[in-house]
Amino acid sequence: MLPPLRALVAFEAVARLHSIGAAAREMQVSQAAVSQQLKGLEQFLGCTLLERSQRGVTLTQVAQQYLPVVSGSLQHLKLQTQILFGGQQSDVLRVKVNHSIGHSWLLPRLRDFYTRFPFIRLDLTLVDWPSRDPCSDADIEITNGVTETEHIRTERLFQEHWLMVCSPAFKQRYRKVLARGDISGLPAIQVKGYQESWLQWLSHNRYSPVLPDVLLEISNSLHGLEAVRQGIGIMLVRSLVAEEWLSEGKVVTALEGSMPSESSHFMITRQHRPAKVSYFCDWMHQQYSYPGPGSEPADKPRVE
């Protein structure tokens, strides 16, 4: 039972581009031809793949399950054809990602990506700062903050919150002053580059507007958390990065409360997305549909 290849191509294009019209333009055929291919595939499979309305088309549940199979098979066929007849050795996807989120969030999930897309090889670079010229040397960038240009597409990934953390031993040592909500003069760690301040956090959570004594400035949150774990001081950190450390008890909240982050992590691509980039971006949206406590996903694009 092998479905018609042309119908599978039409189905994958509509699902990827979220539009029958866009799929028709990519395939250089009419919208009627794409619709006919889709109807033929539905008849062949004996089930409905698309729910059609005046607002557009939506994938049914079975279509959402079928899409990774179709996408993976088509991409694998394309790659093997390039290797055998086009001299291409591998389909490399270059991803540049913020160090903290790459280590704490992305790397633990990559096994799922390779299970779905074994034909794509990732070239992953971890960085501390956003690029001044996004996607000049990468297909995708996942950064804290973004520089807007007309040549790129940006999608906000997470709404995070600031937490104040310390080591369990530190909290025990300063339990009396922390119980009063007083951090005046306490040793502290500051991550470079963030705009949100100690006074903002304290004011937001209705604590006394007094400052700690910053003993250490450090380039990224991941290294800062290690310094916290070693008992050097308290630190303001984003919820997504701190989640695993908190769940494992390596660090604890120094004061109760949180504050929404003014800035966000963004996924950045060029305006035109090759198939391998679209696969990764779609996979990312699936992964952050439930990122965990303390962070909320941005609104996901609607299929049209």
Q: Which labels suit this protein?
A:
disordered C terminus, elongated, two-stranded antiparallel sheet, 304 residues, Arc Repressor Mutant, subunit A, alpha/beta, 41% helix, 11-stranded mixed beta sheet, D-Maltodextrin-Binding Protein, domain 2
Count, helices? 12
- Stretches where pLDDT is under 50 for at least 5 consecutive residues are 290-304
* Molecular shape: elongated
Query: Average pLDDT across residues?
Result: 84
CATH topology label of the largest domain: D-Maltodextrin-Binding Protein, domain 2
Give your account of this protein's structure.
The chain has 304 residues and is of the alpha/beta class. The chain has 2 domains: 5-86, Orthogonal Bundle (Arc Repressor Mutant, subunit A), CATH 1.10.10; 90-304, D-Maltodextrin-Binding Protein, domain 2. Helix content is 41%, strand content 24%. It has helices at 5-17, 20-27, 31-45, 61-86, 99-106, 110-116, 168-173, 175-179, 198-204, 221-229, 239-247, 275-287, and strands spanning 50-53, 56-59, 91-98, 120-127, 140-144, 152-166, 187-191, 213-218, 234-238, 252-253, 259-260, 265-270, 295-297. Strand 1 (50-53) and strand 2 form a beta hairpin. The longest helix is centred in the N-terminal third of the chain and has 26 residues, at 61-86.
Please provide a brief summary of the model.
This protein has helices at residues 5-17, 20-27, 31-45, 61-86, 99-106, 110-116, 168-173, 175-179, 198-204, 221-229, 239-247, 275-287, and strands at 50-53, 56-59, 91-98, 120-127, 140-144, 152-166, 187-191, 213-218, 234-238, 252-253, 259-260, 265-270, 295-297. It has 304 residues and is an alpha/beta fold.
